[in-house]
Design goal:
The complex is a heterotrimer of chains A (about 300), B (about 110) and C (about 290). Chain A is an alpha/beta fold. Helices cover about 35% and strands about 30% of the residues of chain A. Chain C contains eleven helices and eleven strands. Classes of the chains: A alpha/beta (about 300), B alpha/beta (about 110), C alpha/beta (about 290).
Chain lengths: ~300, ~110, ~290
């Protein structure tokens, strides 16, 4: 069983639309939405939730006002500015608290509770394209990386149980903890980029990240025809890095129309870009069939 | 000797888990009598540091050598710090992997 | 109002690629042309793009460091208290050995404090960089996270700290609603959300609105690439009493200008008045 993760560096390049297309074309697979704080894939899949579980990103500190002697030591120790004092009542701002536990450990009055908090929920759902594992992280939720890891674990376990060939994961934008948690140990990273100056810049960043975590990467250029010159530059950059271009998807207003219908583009008849997406899958498929990944990490 | 193996489930018939730090279970097999104990791995949900944490678990249970697929750089540091021998590239069922290891040793 | 008022405005979005940077850089240029003292702060430290449009002159670079533990093995008695307090797996105890993984460290300082022998010192470990400079009359500050390091918030914090405490500061925030986005918008005077009227865009707008309401931050909306299908988003805003400060139409020329790294208000000057009006609206709301 292989794991394909779709990432981008820059946001808005079309990861989720591409994942939905691959979900339609691939068989024997399981889907994971790793974009846990702005999950969109479910909008194209209409999932029926079979199982939901609470998620705890970590622990949070809470000052018990009845025990607190207002010594202020917690405020001195906290490096995240999470300890507040208002009218001599000391409290911890849950959005700022990073869950390090230092204030609680050293409180002379033992007035600080440091306990796991629920800051999200994750789901195992059925969709017309197979099982979808997804989540919702509360706003400001800490440790999105941990939730992503959990989803991937679940996907891995379920995939083995169901004897599936492939896990397709929709990643989040950026290069930080959420993306790192999506990438580590994946078999193949599909980078979806756009032919803009920003897109090229962020392609460089995400490519550096895949190299750093030794995950082989390939590139799909989305909306390639809005700027063929930039597309050529992007392809040059990919070649320079030894990253194969496996797809070029043209700009197509049908993507939004499909989104509004809750469908992937390849489920809509006669759309030109659908051929591009099928071509993409045709190129990726041999790379993620068991035992045949011949890509080297550069 | 006590042989640790990263596994997908908790029995000798389980498949070896190739990703060391992500193993759902780990087994400690006593080579004298081939008896085993299986433990679920608390490190699996860690977004970072699962490898070292898994090493800690093996150490706590007295493993002297570890059989697994591959280990990441952090786990490697932890393994060498703990002076644990590790055999990578191991696959198949736990029972067969342990038998193959013992056969090679002798 | 001319530069004597200090305003801190974040430009944010639930979804990536909606046009935050486009709005932020063009707004900064127009406000400066209107005579305001303006600074642009790129808080999207995982994928900072503002510099591509500003082409700033960089005058100073500051590494952003995280204090990570450094152990004196001679003094260490292997008690393992440091491993006990660490919530991140950055210090672990393996028998008599203490192992440190600086990449996982959040810099909380707990290990140093808890060590009974005083065996732990903290060394600064670079995780990113803040660059400071100018783009014409716009002050420019950019935070950039080092590749491979997971923690964006400390770099965002550092970038914000370097911005001057006067004039109009525009913070270009990262997309989403997780801790990085929160770090970029917290404590600002006003948040300008940018959304596209697609189902994904509306979904993520709701999430942003939820986040900002829980943080009790005032906010308004720019609808980017507005088209015939914008009805759902407008209806949502009406029902939720959310101000729409600007609607930009779905104009392919804007996409092309953006793709070349050019400023909309320069390449397509007919858009300039919209940004002037946006600037006026913001000054009314954020002051």
């Amino acid at each position: 069983m292989k794991e394909l993760v779709v990432i981008s560096g820059k946001g808005g390049t079309g990861k989720t639309s591409v994942v939905a297309a691959l979900a339609t074309l691939a068989e024997d697979k399981l889907l994971v939405d790793c974009d846990v704080d702005a999950a969109n894939l479910y909008l194209l899949l209409q999932p029926q939730v079979r199982q939901s579980e609470p998620f705890s990103g970590g622990k949070q500190a809470w000052i018990d006002p009845d025990l607190c002697s207002a010594c202020g030591q917690c405020g001195e120790l906290c490096r995240y500015g999470a300890v507040r004092c208002s009218e001599e009542i000391w409290s911890v701002d849950p959005l700022a608290c990073e869950g390090c536990g230092v204030c609680a450990w050293f409180c002379p009055d033992d007035a600080i509770r440091f306990e796991p908090v629920i800051n999200g929920e994750w789901f195992t759902s059925n969709t017309r394209h197979g099982t979808l594992i997804h989540a919702r992280l509360q706003a400001g939720g800490e440790n999105s990386g941990k939730l992503v890891t959990l989803l991937r674990q679940r996907a891995s376990g379920l995939g083995e149980l169901l004897n599936l060939e492939l896990i397709i994961a929709d990643g989040s934008p950026g290069v930080g903890c959420q993306v790192i948690a999506s990438l580590s140990g994946a078999d193949l990273a599909l980078v979806v980029s756009e032919p803009t100056l920003s897109g090229i810049h962020d392609f460089g960043r995400i490519a550096d990240l895949t190299t750093h975590f030794t995950v082989p990467a390939v590139l799909c250029i989305n909306k390639w025809d809005i700027n063929p010159e930039m597309t050529a530059r992007l392809e040059e950059e990919a070649e320079r890095r030894g990253i194969e271009v496996v797809g070029r998807v043209r700009y197509d207003s049908a993507f939004t129309r499909a989104q509004r219908r809750g469908l992937s583009l390849v489920e809509c008849d006669g759309e030109p870009a659908a051929e591009d997406l099928k071509g993409l899958w045709k190129n990726i498929q041999p790379l993620v069939v068991d035992g045949e990944t011949t890509l080297k990490i550069v | 000797m006590k042989i640790g193996v990263s596994a997908k489930s908790g029995s000798m018939e389980a498949e070896v888990e190739s990703r060391f730090g992500r193993c759902a279970f780990f087994l400690i097999v006593d080579s004298e009598n081939m008896r085993f104990e299986a433990f679920s791995n608390p490190a699996t949900s860690m977004s970072g540091g699962a490898g070292p944490r898994t090493v800690q678990e093996f150490v706590n249970r007295g493993a002297e050598v570890i059989l697994t697929g591959h280990v990441g750089p952090k786990a490697e540091s932890a393994l060498s710090a703990a002076n644990l021998e590790v055999v990578t590239g191991v696959s198949g069922k736990v029972k067969e992997a342990v038998e193959a290891f013992l056969a090679e040793k002798n | 109002m001319n530069g004597s008022t200090s305003m801190l405005i974040a430009i944010a979005s639930g979804k990536g690629g909606t046009g935050k940077t486009t709005i932020a850089v063009n707004l900064a240029v127009v406000l400066a042309q209107m005579g305001r003292e303006v600074a642009y702060v790129d808080g999207d430290v995982e994928a900072p793009n503002g510099h591509l449009f500003f082409k700033p002159r960089i005058d100073a670079r500051f590494p952003v460091d995280l204090p990570v533990p450094d152990l004196d093995k001679e003094i260490c008695n292997s008690c393992g208290k440091c491993a006990e307090i660490c919530q991140y797996g950055a210090i672990i105890r393996l028998g008599e050995q203490i192992l440190i993984f600086p990449d996982l460290c959040h810099g909380c300082g707990g290990c140093r404090l808890v060590c009974p022998e005083g065996a732990i010192r903290e060394n600064p470990r670079p995780i990113g960089v803040v660059e400071e400079g100018e783009a014409g009359s716009v002050g420019f500050i950019q935070g950039c996270l080092d590749i491979g390091h997971p923690l964006a918030p400390p770099v965002i914090r550092a970038a914000r700290q370097r911005s001057p405490n006067r004039g109009i500061r525009l913070i270009d925030a990262p997309p989403g609603t997780a801790c990085a986005a929160v770090q970029a918008v917290e404590g600002t005077d006003y948040v300008l959300l940018v959304a596209e009227p697609t189902p994904f865009g509306l979904n993520d707008l709701r999430l942003s609105v939820e986040m900002l309401r829980s943080m009790q931050l005032p906010f308004g909306l720019v609808i980017n690439r507005a088209d015939d299908g914008s009805g759902d988003m407008r209806r949502y805003c009406a029902a939720e009493q959310i101000d729409i400060l600007l609607e930009l139409p779905d104009d392919r020329r804007v996409a092309e200008v953006y793709s070349r790294g050019e400023l909309m208000v320069e390449a397509l000057p007919e858009y300039r008045p919209a940004f002037v009006e946006l600037g006026n609206q913001l000054e009314r709301r954020a002051a």
